[in-house]
Amino acid sequence: MAADLKGKVQTVLGCIDPSQLGRTLTHEHLWCDTTPLGMPTCPSFLPNLKSLPFNMQNLGFIRQFPYSYTPNLTLHGEEQHVIEELKFFKQHGGSSMVECTTLGISNNVGMLKTMAEKTGVNIIAGAGYYVDSSLPPEVHGATQEQLVSTMVQDITQGAAGTSIRCGVIGEIGTSWPITATEKKVLQATAAAQTQLGCPVIIHPGRNKEAPAEVIRILAEAGGDISRTVMSHLDRTIYDKGELSEFAKLGSYLEWDLFGIEVSYYEQVTNLDMPSDAQRIQMIKHVLDNGYEDRVVIAHDVHTKHRLMHYGGHGYSHILLNVVPMMLARGISQDQVDKMLIHNPRNWLTFK
Ligand SMILES: CC(=O)NCCS(=O)(=O)O
Question: Can you tell me which residues bind a divalent metal cation 1 (predicted)?
């Protein structure tokens, strides 16, 4: 356990008392390049989508096929817009964000530090590794001990040769089926978590069996499941009974694709991307079943078209639009505060 971190939350500007977190989005990206999520072919009626300008005329196509449009897949160069949107988030009652960009989708803690300094938003950076197909050969060839050592260093000394420290491990990327490298990374994550008492966040593969299989691997390796967030449940578990079964395993349950309102899901075209209304129904189900201390929420902005500058909902959509929808659908203010303040705070505090 890292004695100097115990009882604190570690942001890119240093440690803070957990009470300073305020309203916290637990899964966002401010600086990333998600080219690994790109789809190799455009739909046949749009042969030139990859070379179209990003303008109003094309926004409908880009929203429908966000991963076919290569320029959409990077937030690099968007820092001024992101900074404006972080200020807007703060003006509307937001306070903190977990920035989950890990190795494989171009993380940059220096940029996160600049953004935190310019906006006053607490940014908690993620250490670790994204999905197998995005990783460089060194990670495939590394031993588990080497991966543990890098993640521990990122949290205790500083990441990428800087003195800027991460405050969470993840998002740790997994595919379906889970690959050998991803299993090694999960086992290393559990070992690093045991040493540090730190929070962990997981990106599961796109299959309803994936979240439970990840939890099994982490638990077998000694990980603390009660301090682990399972992301992207929106597009992973669709059945309320199966969700109740998964909730019993004890992780935090995260719906983090709020703001995506296109049901066509380019990554897996026979799965429907739910609407915000459907996300809220699933959340209400787990709240009604006694899991109000386990739910966290976010937007997982990772493409240009979801920034306000490009006609998207931005990082403030939950505060501005989703919370009122929740209250109108029987979720209490106390439960909203748990999802946005108390649960993120408990998760992010080092033990
Ligand atoms: C950055 C990232 O991996 N987001 C999740 C996208 S997905 O379509 O829900 O897998």
Answer: 27, 29, 171, 300
| φ/ψ (deg, to 5) at 129 | -135, 135
pLDDT digits (tens, 9 = 90+) for 299-326: 999 999 999 999 999 999 999 999 999 9
The C-alpha atoms of residue 97 and residue 76 are separated, in whole angstroms, by 18
- The minimum-distance atom of ligand 1 relative to the CA of 130 is 3
Max distance between CA atoms of the chain, in angstroms, equals 59
- Predicted complex ipTM: 0.98
Ligand 1-lining residues (CB < 6 angstroms):
34, 203, 232, 235, 257, 267, 300, 302
pTM assigned to the model: 0.97
Pocket perturbation via mutation, ligand 1, pick of 201, 233, 266, 302 by most ligand atoms within 8 A of CB: 302
